[in-house]
Design a protein that fits this description.
Elements (H helix, E strand, L loop, with lengths): L5 H17 L8 H19 L21 H17 L2 H9 L1
Helix pairs in contact: 1-3, 2-3
């Protein structure tokens, strides 16, 4: 089985995700966006501590296992979601609550 090239992987989802982010208008922040970011951060945390480290051909021993190939998508998604929260004024709201 032939392994997908970087360009094929980009065309397979990363490009659409980045394009949708570029269309962001900054209409405020919703709880849904914050929960999405929280979920992505949980996936990253799982990837960082899972015993197999996402290595190919290693069996997942826990639920929520993160494939190593998905790490780039997770990181891109975290950056995009964080920017959406930032541009939507979420950090200003958070700073007010923390005062």
């Amino acid at each position: 089985m032939r392994k997908a090239t970087w360009i094929e992987k980009l065309d397979g989802g990363q490009l659409d995700m980045m394009w949708n982010f570029l269309k962001f208008k900054g209409k405020g922040v919703t709880v849904h966006e914050v929960e999405g970011l929280e979920n992505l951060l949980d996936q990253l945390r799982t990837a960082m501590i899972q015993k197999s480290a996402g290595q190919p051909n290693r069996e997942a021993k826990t639920s929520g296992y993160v494939e190593f190939e998905d790490l780039g998508t997770i990181l891109n998604s975290i950056i995009i979601e964080t920017m959406a929260v930032y541009l939507g004024g979420g950090f200003e709201k958070l700073k007010e609550v923390l005062k």
